[in-house]
Amino acid sequence: FKSLPIREELLSGLLCADQIGFQFFSYARCFLVCVKRVYGLDPTFRAGGFMGLEYNGRSIMIKVAHFPYPFRETRLLVQSE
Asked: Directed axis angle between helix 25-39 and helix 7-14, to 10°?
């Protein structure tokens, strides 16, 4: 990720969301390390298993959980015109 020339733009785009979800803790950890290196932000730990970041006066919640992929709905959407 460090070698990407648009890494700051990618992180900035992700940090525009109110909540960011990751399937695995290692992915969340890598994201938090990148945010720390690029923006100097430290995570806080919140109730309910959330981690949080304060960015541009906003609070972004980060959750590590298994998010189901809506296979049937996606297939119907792709097949429809």
From this structure: 120
